[in-house]
Every structure is written in C-alpha cells, then in structure tokens.
TrEMBL record:
UniProt cross-references to PROSITE patterns, sorted A to Z: NUDIX
Top-rank taxon, per record: Bacteria
Gene3D superfamilies: 3.30.750.160, Nucleoside Triphosphate Pyrophosphohydrolase (3.90.79.10)
A molecular-function term among this protein's GO annotations: catalytic activity
Residue ranges occupied by any Nudix hydrolase domain in the UniProt entry: 120-268
Region span, Disordered: 1-23
Skewed-composition ranges (Low complexity): 11-20
Protein name: NUDIX domain-containing protein
Pfam families in UniProt: NUDIX
InterPro entries membership: NUDIX_hydrolase-like_dom_sf, NUDIX_hydrolase_dom
Amino acid sequence: MPAGAGTQWVQPLRQASQQPPQAPRWPLWCNGQRIGSVAEAVFDAAQATVWARQQGFVLEAATVQGAQAWQLQADDPTAALNAMAQLLRTQGRCGPWRNEQLDVHGQDGALVATVERGAVRVLGVATQAVHLLGSAPDGRMWVQQRALNKPTHPGKWDTLMGGMVSAGDSLQTALARETQEEAGLDLAPLQQLRRGGQVDFACPSEEGGDGTGYMLESIQWFHAVVPQGVQPQNMDGEVAQFQCITPQQLQAWLLQDCFTPEASLILADHLGW
C-alpha cells in the first residue's frame, strides 16, 4: 500500500509518540550529570532528604542550571538509584519489577549507573530497545501475538521480536539474546540481516500512575529473512503465538490497530509510510 489513502493513521501515531509529560517534572541530576526527570508529586522534599541520608547518600531539591531539580550525590550511584527504585516500588509507583538492570547515561552519553527496569519510566531515564522484523522468502511477514498476561499491550500483535537493551549490552548482544528468548532463533541462520532504522518515543507512560511516568526510548529495528522451513518458537513465555501473514493482511491489521504503537511505527517505517 503506497503512502496516502489508508495511511492517515500514521501521522497521528507519530505525533502521539512525541508528547510532553502530563505533570510537571524536575530534572534528576546525579553527580553532576542529568540522568532523568521526576514528577513533582513523586517525592516530598523534606522526607526524601531525610530518607536518603539514612541510606547513605544525598538527595535534595536544588536549583541546577537555573531550574528546580532533584540532585543526587552518591559514591555508588547504582546503589542509590536502586534504593530509590525500591522506595518507589513500596509506594506502588514502579512498573513491573523485572530484576533487570538498565544502563543510565548522563547528558553527555557517559555511563553513570544502572537501575532496575521497573523504575525507569517514573525516573524519566532514557532507555534503548531492539526489534526484529522477520520476512519469509515469499514476502510474508512473521509477527507475534503478545501473551495475555503481559503488563503492557497484552494480546496485541508485535514484530517478530522486541526487547530492551539490558545493562552492559551492545545492540548486537541484545538483538541476539532477545531473538533467542522470544523467537527461539539464532541470528546466524537468518539471511540478509541488516539494520533498518530508528523509532523514538518521548511520551507519557502509565507506569508510575497519576501521570508520573514518562517514556524516553530509542528503538533500533532490524530486518532479516527467516529461511524456508524455520519456525519461530517462544522460549520465555511472553508470546501467545506466531503467525506468518501476507502483505495484505499486515496492512489490514495496521489499519485495524492490531499492533502495539511501537510495532506500528516500525512497520510503517519499513513500508516507507
């Protein structure tokens, strides 16, 4: 389907992926690096300062570069951020707790710390993800249906694979691990594997509740041909089923909003929409 008639949904979805926070947020600084942002309602300044001191680090409201901000000073920023994540968890403000660490970078790209995945949205920490589009040799597309118990977009259709880049991962390492876990496929037998492009999200997130979550994510997507006779098989329990669908069915499902927002924008990018 060429861009134009029938693809009017793409632009609104792209606009929805780039939206300001629902609630005012204070920048979050750590040892001189801006690493995220926190909604005003999340921490009480006086209580947070006392609590942090008890944990062995400093967390205080301060003016940084002319703006009201949270300033974290810690000898071990990873320990401090994960203590904050645990506090948010007890308050019911975290997303699903995964016992998975993600890298935390400063505004200059330097690695500052790592933090539990469940806290990144409420802390406004930027994340990276990888997705893989898998085509069959005859031009059909492999897609997965997300498990019904997934915390986000349960039952929606998705790319062949999508996953987070964990702490210490390269894009290639994350791509290989997530493809094996979600689709039971090694990268080596896949044909014509290439990087396809990038889709960015900067928009409110339901995680954190009360408009306190914010998603900052860069998705690097790749494309490969799955050889004839190779069947994806889920290994981590997070996929309900795989289907190999025709281009016509793929386009119809996109128009019917069957895919997650991330998958929809990646597929639109792939199709040149």
